[in-house]
Amino acid sequence: MKIVQTFWTKPGLHGHWPDPVFHYMSWALSCLQLRQFYNQVELYTDHSGAELLHDRFRLPYTGFHLTLNNFPFADYLWSAPKLHTYSLQQESFLHVDGDVFLFRKIPESFIEKHDVVCQNLEIDRSGNKGFYAEILKTLFAVRPQHTFPGWLASARLNDLCAMNAGIMGGSNISFFQRYTRKAFTFLTGHDAVFSQLEDPQYMTHLAEQVLPGAMMRNENISLGTLLSPDLYPGLIMPDTNEAINEDHFAKQPLPFKYLKLDEHGLSPSGRKYAHVMGSRKWSLATCKQLARRLKKDYPDVYERVLRHASTKQYAVTGKKMPATFVEKIGQIPPEKAFRRSVRMAAVCGAAVPSSGSVDAFEQAMLSETNKLGSLARQKMEDVLRFEAERIRTARSWTAELLRQHDSDCLASQDLITDETALKAAGIWLEMNPQGKRVVTQWNWLNSRELGPPNPLRIRHQVVLLPESITHSLIEIGLSPVQLRLINILETAGAPCEASALCRAAADAGETPETAIFKALVFLVANGVLLASKFPNRPTPLSQSALLQPGKSIHATRYEPVE
Known about the structure:
This is DUF6734 domain-containing protein. It is built from 23 helices and 18 strands.
């Protein structure tokens, strides 16, 4: 089976990740996981892409094709090079995006027995509010619908079908030849229309994903999907064959359910197929999991990526990475370090001071906050203190602490695979000493809180953790079940045996054991808790000992201002 990928460097090297280094790690992990299962994995790219992935990172592609040098398309048409790769295939194939990670093999037989294979169908019957309906409405506002090719001219906003191309391939090469010809006719014949759109990049969704969905409806082709369809309002699920059944997800998932990793994160113990697309790439927690997975399973490649990130060439194409958190804070303008406070100030009518040092900015903002009314002042003080605590915590993370943190988190990975292993393996848990727990009155992880002052104040708990590659700070919001586990563990004041901790948490509240297990795995996968094996540890603390009342020693609490 021929597996192909497409890497086009013209749009830049960030790939919509927070930093190019994670884009590189994504490509590395995607390729290396594919090579775990397939002997033929080839890359279609340009000269710069080959130099990066082949010469610098030495990724084990079995073939490199320089088909994208001087590729004559605008960089916002990001799917055009993928369509070009589809058009070049002469045998059964599967194209896999560079932000897709396989932890289980997709059988060759599944691909070869279907005309077309894609990640999943996306069917939009919303009429006017769905993702694809919005794209078409915007396009048809510029040019009448009937003037477009037949597959668009006949499109109905209340009955749209698209193929998500996280993976795309199959055995019907004739179909892919027709499909790509129509796609390029659309992209090259309407560039004047695209230039009038505010977001012309969405036209690639039509060419790559809506077009084959329309063709599928009009042709007698066999379709295989990896996952269940995305369900939009009014969907009647079509009859498709699924290759990977993610049993721990609902049979009828919510829209874009495949975006969500499970409690294990990027792990062989978690989802067997992960597509980190869209805004998911901007999650620093996801970036951290990506880095840890690459470092644990492919340490040599991980080191090559980091060495490249420290070179002058990287600074030309990306940005110079800071050496410490203190240096990073010194590079950030105060209004960015306090971005949520600045947004709240605009809502509350507080003046925003001119830029100075971070500390001076904080004091000036507090002074302005004192001029506000009671409720607005409480909310402004809450967000200011939260963001100030972020800065103080980041400054405390020295290089030595970060090295120990990364080592501890790496050792914790993959110790907890399932509930059976948890009970049998004798795994011990403790709090990550580099995690800082903060309690606020409002949930500042939710952007909707950055609105007019409201009296609803519920204590929210967040753990602040370091992301050491880019010296950034990760915010992990805690659910009630996760918080219960942490409180019991902190009360014990010493490492606890994991299965005993789960039993104690179950006894402390009416929560199913499976939910407690998932909460525990999430905390370990994200570095809030550290897991280890101590075969010679003394007898675990009893459940009654774990449940003795005590006070958390790690939380900074902000009491409401009266």
